[in-house]
Amino acid sequence: MLSNFPLAPPSASNFAFEYDVLFYGLLALTILFTAIVCIGLIYFTIKYRKGSDADRYRPVYEDGRLEAVWSVGPLILAIVFFFLGAKQFIHMRTPPQDAQEIYVIGKQWMWHIQHSNGVRENNTLHVPLGKPVKLTMISQDVIHAFYIPAFRVQMHVVPGRYTSLWFTPTKKGEYHLFCTMYCGTQHSEMGGKVIVMEPKEWAEWIDNGGETRPSMTMAQAGMKLFNRVGCNNCHGPESNIRAPSLVNLFGSTRAMANGPSVVADEAYIRESILRPHTRISQGYGESMPAYDGQLSEREIIELLAYIKTMGSGIPVAPPGSPAGPGALPAQAQGTSQTPMAAGAIQYQTERPDITPTTRQGRPAVGAVAAQQEAVGN
Amino acid sequence: MSVTAVRPADLPEKPPETVNYLNVDHTIKSWLLTGDHKRIAILYLISVSFFFFLGSIAAGLIRYELTAPAGWVLESDTYNKVFSAHGVIMVFLFLVVAIPAVFGNWLLPVMIGARDLAFPRLNLLSWYLYVIGGTLIMIGIINGGTDSGWTFYTPYSSMYSNNNTATVLLGIFIAGFSSITTGINFVVTTHKMRAPGMTWFRLPLFVWSMYATGVVILLGTPVVAITLFLVVLERTLQFPIFNPELGGDPVLFQHLFWFYSHPAVYIMILPAFAVQSELIANFARKRIFGYHFVAFSTLAIAGLGFLVWGHHMFISSQSMYQGVVFSLITFLVAVPSAVKIFNWTATLYKGNISLHSPMYYALGFMGLFTVGGLTGLFLGSMGTDVHLTGTYFIVAHFHYVMVGGTLTAFLGALHYWWPKMTGRLYNDTLAKATAILVFLGFNLTFFPQFIIGFMGMPRRYHYYYFAPEYQAYHIMSTLGATVLGLSLILPAFYLTKSLINGPRASANPWGAHGLEWNTTSPPPPHNFEETPIVTDEVYDFDPVLEYEQDQEKKRREPRHYDDFDPQALAENEPKLPDKEKN
């Protein structure tokens, strides 16, 4: 009976504990103040009800000291909780340097996820236990929001700009993944699950291409695209004549011909591909064609992944060679045959009778989209 | 010349009714072309009750659908249109309008001793704009509907939503001007039309709050009106503002929208504070504790309310530093709200409290608004907001403020001023029972939503078959909504009955203080027989004296002493004709 009334979500990330401390702190504050007000109301209402014999002589109508107490007291508490909340938020928005990057594209009504070695999955995210993960996200149509309650992380996924979030999973299991920004008819079905695996199992899973065997890593796909759409004609590794070389571009500060210098982050690189004339590197002219509307979000992300590797020392094997273990983070090596923990959704094991993947004889739209995507690949 | 002899039996039993604003003229035209603020308020009362009824039906459908993880009757598309209709109707046609346009309109001139609002014809225009706006919204909802929620986030609303969003947006645009005209009227009337002796610090707190509401309406509403109009332009003419595919910025919409819609929360709750101050003072029979602090906290809330809109957007990709500033100011707004609650509670201390049905609502308001306000801190604190925003926690929070606060205050105001507005008394016992049922039903509906929100249930979800652990709470919530819905039907019956055969109310059935109680119930068309001159302070009660008089009366006639019955109060009131000479 009581199991039907769970009171808190599972706690499965590095943020969960500090989050819950703050949440329950605020909860205690809420209960305290509500109790003060309610007890005061009930006590006074009974004691001073009309006709009671309570002492009403010398009533008070205004008292500066009392007003000061109940203004300054809440003010101090407010500033303390503001500070704690802001501190945690800044922590949540500052991913560690060694976080493993995964790309997410949101579209009506599915999540498309791509790992760095090219493994793709839809509406499911496999992550290794205990390793920081950074998601770089963009939407292809309307605003979505990527939300994993068990990790206490949520971020809007906006068309036209990258957003990111990060976490370190701390507990094995399967957890809900939701879209929390209303995005149209099948909004409630735009979700799936996050599966946290032992690093060894995860390495094996991604080695074997997850559920679909990738032909190329993301960087390889990006390299192929880089050559196909003609980026290499001007932005080749050695050339600096018509356009700047992109070696070591990512994260560097670049001087601009038409404005202040910028740090070359994801947003800048995206803008330079789609609308190159908005900001031009010093010493170069408006010679690059704009790729706005010609590349899909996935292609842009692949280009980005490739450009990030340029000069970083990580060699990108030419496209066509199979994705080798070299494309994987070093810690993800190893083999283990342990099957994934079953039924790790926290509250209930799966019950087929209440989990219709079909509705009125038709498969749910989210499921159809996922299948089509899988076939398309 | 004939002389008609009058025999005693021909004399009417009651003296003929005095002329009041209700019986002065009976034609439909006299209502539809009236300039009387009291009649316009009654027109508003009827129309907002109608839209509230429609919005409640949508709410009932939502709650019924959510008892099953995969729904019962609605398709997802229909469900989305239903919750959007619920939000649009309740926010733009009920909450924003209800208390200011009904009770503000009716009471503001009476409370300051004026004959009418400053611009009576503008006031009538505002009702017509409201009706035209409401009709357009209903046409939009019936003829295709909108499924973008009441927030109309772009680019979904401007490019992707495939239905009649533009008509609904135009309706809101027009209804916005209805608010603006009301706001102008309130601000000008408060400044220019106070009776002799009615200084600023003799104003009832109701007037202070309505004044602040008027200012917020004037500064905020034009922004949302033009923003929604831009969405219409982008939808119909591909005007590139918000859609990134056209070169626009989708997050800009959120800034513009919340620049109004957060102050709009104060447009909805400040009038509730207005009612609350009157109810507490008059039923505790004591001057509001810390009158000046309550008055200035109202202005502080109205001012700071314009600087916190970004707390709706912590995770929307706005800059982290921007978020920090918005969060800090949000926490600062909590302080004047706390000041108000504490002052109202302290007013009860050494009062002489009579528990009639309006006071039940006032006490319920205090509890519900306290919970609603404090849970707002979870969302104003950036760290905790990340997990809770976009979930049922936020749904529960704003229903505690909007329903637990504004609707409760609306019902309290309706019960408190009903005898004044209609001249009739209703059954107070039934009214008290209703107040208790509303309180219980409300809590049962929305408290479980805090829990599923914390557990991660996203708002605006039609299905949750993949997360069946939420179902038990949804069923609880629907049970509560049933109780709430049924208990809201009760007033329709006993209030209508009071109009038909309720006892007549005296000029001051509650023994309250304030200019509105100095005139007859219902008042004459121009409120007062002659312009009142204010010589006493606001809420000039003397609980000690009243207590002593009570004791004296109790001692003398213990059997007939009944202090909890307004009908007895009405009978105790002298019914002598010399009353009219005053």
Q: Can you walk through the features of this model?
A:
The complex is a heterodimer of chains A (377) and B (582). Chain A is of the alpha+beta class and 377 residues long. Chain A has a domain at 218-322: Cytochrome Bc1 Complex, Chain D, domain 2, CATH 1.10.760.10. Chain A has helices at residues 16-47, 64-92, 199-207, 218-228, 231-235, 266-274, 297-309, 365-376; strands at residues 100-107, 110-114, 120-122, 124-128, 133-139, 144-148, 153-157, 163-167, 173-179, 192-197, 253-254, 262-263, 358-359, 362-363. In chain A, the strands form four sheets. Chain A has a five-stranded mixed beta sheet, covered by helices on one side. In chain A, β6 and β7 form a beta hairpin. Chain A is elongated, with a radius of gyration of 27 Å. The two termini of chain A are 45 Å apart. Helices cover 65% and strands 0% of the residues of chain B. In chain B, α12 (357-380) runs antiparallel to α14 (392-422). Chain B has a single domain (38-581), classed as Cytochrome C Oxidase, Chain A (Up-down Bundle). Classes of the chains: A alpha+beta (377), B mainly alpha (582). At the A-B interface, α1, α2, β7 and β9 of A face α3, α6, α9, α10 and α11 of B.
- Which whole number gives the mean pLDDT of chain B? 89
The proportion of residues in beta strands of chain A is: 15-25%
Instruction: Report the strand count of chain B.
Output: 0
- What is the gyration radius of chain B calculated from CA atoms? 25 Å
The oligomeric state is heterodimer
* Overall strand count of chain A: 14
Reported by name, the CATH topology of chain B is Cytochrome C Oxidase, Chain A
Largest sheet of chain B: none
The largest sheet of chain A, given as strand count, sense and whether it forms a barrel, is: 5 strands, mixed
Low-confidence sequence ranges of chain A: 320-377
From the alpha carbons, calculate the radius of gyration of chain A and give it in angstroms.
27 Å
Named CATH architecture of chain B? Up-down Bundle
Low-confidence stretches of chain B: 570-582
Overall helicity of chain B: 55-70%
Q: Which bin fits the share of residues in helices of chain A? A: 25-40%
CATH homology group of one domain in chain A: Cytochrome c-like domain
